[in-house]
Fold each of these.
Amino acid sequence: MRSDPSLVLAAIPHSGFVLGFAAEELRQRKSFVLQAVKLNGYALIGTPDELRADREVVLAAVRRQGQCLEFASPKLRGDPEVVLAAIKSSPEPLVHVEDSLWSQPSFVLDACELHACALQHAVDALRQNRAFVRAAFERNAECLCYAHPDLQSERGFLIECLALNPNALHFVPATMRMDVAFQAAAKSHVTETALPSPAW
């Protein structure tokens, strides 16, 4: 049974862990492993290290189940295309991304377009950069929620963002929305009824 490709593949959709118990000859065969991870991305767990470092195999696995990024080689966890494929449907794999990617502006912007919360993983140099956060905001207004606290408390920057997208008011920190000076400056960009009444 462990050496029978058809029996192993029949079991894979029910549990990706099955591949780890298959005959070594099957586990070492790239064509077979590709079939397995396309059925169940978690089959990557039982895959030999050299195939966890194979771009084609890992891409197939993460396209099936993004969380399988965790079991890819460090090099592929730092590959922008692989990571973006993994996070396409869910932000959960973001925690498995190699640190080196979080300092790359182009990758962070692409990730933010999919999930605004990606910005919170970026290095502070990017989260504090007005031009960069504005670019992220233009792709996904919710990114404002994950900007560096220094920018979130900068009235002028928030007004700039509202000028670009008046519908983003609900992404402005609540304390700032209640700020009288902020409200006065924001009125030219949003309807007055959208602004909360200040607490006196």
Amino acid sequence: MFPEVFSSAADPIPPAGLALLEGGADLMIVVIVAYSVVNFVIQSIIQPKLVADAVNISLSVTFLSLVFWTFVIGPVGAILAVPLTLLGKSLLFDVDQDTRWMSGLLEGGSAPPEVEPETSPGDAPAAAG
């Protein structure tokens, strides 16, 4: 399947072993803690934000889809959460003009700016006087 997802627990073993040989148990613990912190930040904060930006859905929808699809179909749902959410979005919201506004609820970012009506110079009110 996806070795990079399932091997994250085994990844620090080689550098931790090298740190144990080079600097003892203290250095090994520092290496394991540093690896765990960096791995957590990348997989839990940076990667979901990049995925959400790439597929144009908000970060909260990405997280909620992960929880929902994992609950519905188990561990496979965690892997397929974003593709299944995009499939549902395209089938339910993007096909009809009447439901396209709901698609905007799933997308990240701010609302588009409102356009003010333009006035021509002849439409300006006359000065009282």
Amino acid sequence: MWHLTATGATPAPVLQELLNHLADGDGWDTAVGLAVDGKSVTAATKPLVEAGWKHTVDGRFIRWTNPSQDAGVQFDVFAAQKPSSALATWTIWAGPSVDQPTWALHASPHTPASTLADLATELAHGTGTRHHGPRSSAPRQPPPANAKLPAAAPTGPGLPARRLR
């Protein structure tokens, strides 16, 4: 069995791609109990390689990042060898970094390579990297002192009430 989790900010097109893939019946091609091998890693990341994404190795992690380095896929070699572990083997992300993503998908070792490849294709073509950062928490600045405010409608006793249209 395999599992995949998504953060709340994961873009709808990425989730739609996942649902379409599963509805097509293509998401069931990994045999349970087998370790992730080089063939499945190559198949899962082929769309990224074809799109010219940079490939790096950092300790136990193999990462593919887009040219602007604001999206990527990370493969955890250690987690892949421990299929019963709760560690995510695959992380598909977009944002400032893999450690501080705007959104992310985390997948288990038995997630089918075809499912990961479809998600990687979606990411590589840019739909998944379109993310909106959090709204600014900075307080709104008051208008400049010389700014003109709109005139208020006169009111008070002695003026007839007007109906707005």
Amino acid sequence: MGKNKDEVVGKGKQVKGKVREEVGKMTGSKKEQIKGKIEQVEGKAQEGVGKARKKVSK
């Protein structure tokens, strides 16, 4: 069984957040680094919801 929408969107948020965090590091922007980390956490949570839904639907 493949990934569901929550897993895919969650993984995308994690990648986007990591990029944002790295851009913040390169530019010296703590604000962007923090926003990136928050986005990564949101993505991990959403991916977890997707995995839980998949287990429940089995």
